Amino acid sequence: MGIKKSTMENMERLDFWKGKNVLVTGGNGLVGSHIVEELLWNNANVIVLIRSQNPKSYFVTEGLDKKTILAYGDLKDFKRIHDIISKYEIEYIFHLGAQPIVPTALINPVETFGTNINGTINVLESARLCNSVKGIVVASSDKAYGISKELPYTEETQLKGTFPYDVSKTCTDLLAQSYFKTYNVPITIARFGNIYGPGDLNFNRIIPGAIKATLLNETLKIRSDGKMIREYLYVKDVADGYLMLCENINKSKGEAFNLSNGLKLSVLEVIERISQAINKKINYKILNIAKNEIYEQHLSTEKVEKFFGWRTKYSFEDGIKKTVKWYEKILNIEK
C-alpha cells in the first residue's frame, strides 16, 4: 500500500518518479525500506546500496529485494559508491546508510564515525562528480542539535552534538551544507526525531521492545528512568517527508527541515499508549542504566509547514496497530 495521499497528490508523485533512477543507501533499513516501497509504488527504478541481508527485515518480508537492483558495497568504499552512481546514471539519492544505534556508537565510535562521516563524504563527492545527479536528501537527526536548552529545536538551533552518535550526525549535516554552499550540489537535509514502524528489528528501542514483550508475554526492560521525552514518528510519514523534499528539490535545496508530528511522550507514556492501542497490559522493569543520552528533545515543524504545507498523516494509535501486525508476522504470533 502507498502512503495516505489524495488522488491528485498520488498522480503528481507518480508523474515525478516514473522511470527515474534512484539510489537509496541503507535501503534495507527501517526508513530506507519504506522509501524504497513508495518509490516502487510510483514506478521508479530503484537501486539499493546494502552490505548484507536480514531475512526478517521489512525489505525481505515484503519482497522489496526482488523488485530492486541490489548493489552490495560499503559506504566507506569511495570507488564502489562512485561506480554505482555512475553505472546506473543515478538522478536522485536518498542517503540513509549509517550506523544508527546510539549505544553501539558509545561502544564503537571509530566504526560509527567511519560509516556516518566518511560514508557521507563518499556519497556527496561521488554525486558532485556525476552530472546525472539532480537531487539528494541527506538523513540528519534531532541528535545533530546535541544538548540544548532551547526547545523546541528550530532549524536555526546550533548544531553541537556531544556524544559519538550525535557528533556523527552533526558532521553529516554540516558536510551536506558544505557541499551545497561550496559546490552547489543540490542537497536538502531532513532532521527527524525517533521513528517507529514495521521493519525495526532493534528490540532495544522502546517501541519494538514493548511490542515484542507484549506479544511474547515477557517483561520489558527499560534502560532509562522512563522519563526521557521524545517525539515518535510513524515510518510511513517519514518516507512521505523524504519523498516530498526530493520532489521539491528546486525549492528545498540548501535548506534543512525538521519533520515531526508534535507528539511529545515520555518512555512511560509510550508504554501506556501502546498498552491502550493493543488492549493489553505491558509488564516492565526500570533499569535506569542509560548513559550519555539527551533527556528531552522535540522539534519545531513551522518551517516545513510554511514551505510546503507538510504534515503527518498517521496518528500514534494507527501507527502502532499497523506496526503490531508486522511484528505478529515476523514473530510467528498466531491470533
TrEMBL record:
Question: Pfam families attached here?
Answer: Epimerase
> InterPro entries, from UniProt?
Epimerase_deHydtase (IPR001509), NAD(P)-bd_dom_sf (IPR036291)
Q: Which SUPFAM superfamilies does this entry report, sorted A to Z?
A: NAD(P)-binding Rossmann-fold domains
Start and end of every NAD-dependent epimerase/dehydratase domain? 22-259
Record-stated family: Belongs to the NAD(P)-dependent epimerase/dehydratase family.
Which protein are we looking at? Putative sugar dehydratase/epimerase YfnG
